């Protein structure tokens, strides 16, 4: 766990971990406490941390810099649905052929800027209430 929080959990890996931390700072400025988990490994995955996060925050956003199918978000969803079902949103490339551009452009294009991650987390919190 990189940051503790009780309102929502952001689970990221790779370069998106830094953006997840920035998103948590944005959320904190609005009074929202986001837990941030760095999921350095998808297999094996830290089931205990995911289950605790689901039970303690009630909402999870995953962030990965590739397709949302068959990666971090899918692995987290498997753990969550089998152990502690909560609202969840997977951020990544949504199963389409992405446009050409820089890495930063593509991450921003698919909602993985710190602001985009924060907005997604805020939306889940609203749905949770």
Automatic annotation (TrEMBL):
SUPFAM superfamilies: TK C-terminal domain-like (SSF52922). InterPro entries: PDH/Transketolase (IPR051157), Transketo_C/PFOR_II (IPR009014), Transketolase_C (IPR033248). Residues 2-117 form the Transketolase C-terminal domain. It comes from the Bacteria. This is Transketolase, C-terminal domain. It comes from Aliiruegeria lutimaris.
């Amino acid at each position: 766990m990189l940051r503790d929080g009780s309102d929502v959990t952001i689970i990221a890996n790779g370069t998106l971990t830094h953006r997840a931390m920035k998103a948590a700072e944005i959320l904190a400025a609005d009074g929202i406490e986001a837990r941030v988990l760095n999921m350095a490994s998808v297999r094996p995955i830290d089931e205990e941390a995911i289950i605790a996060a689901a039970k303690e925050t009630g909402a999870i956003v995953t962030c990965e810099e590739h397709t949302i199918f068959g990666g971090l978000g899918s692995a987290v969803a498997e753990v969550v649905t089998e152990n502690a079902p909560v609202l969840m949103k997977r951020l990544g490339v949504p199963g389409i052929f992405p446009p050409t551009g820089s890495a930063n452009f593509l991450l921003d294009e698919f909602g993985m800027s710190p602001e985009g991650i924060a907005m997604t987390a805020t939306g889940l919190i609203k749905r949770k209430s």
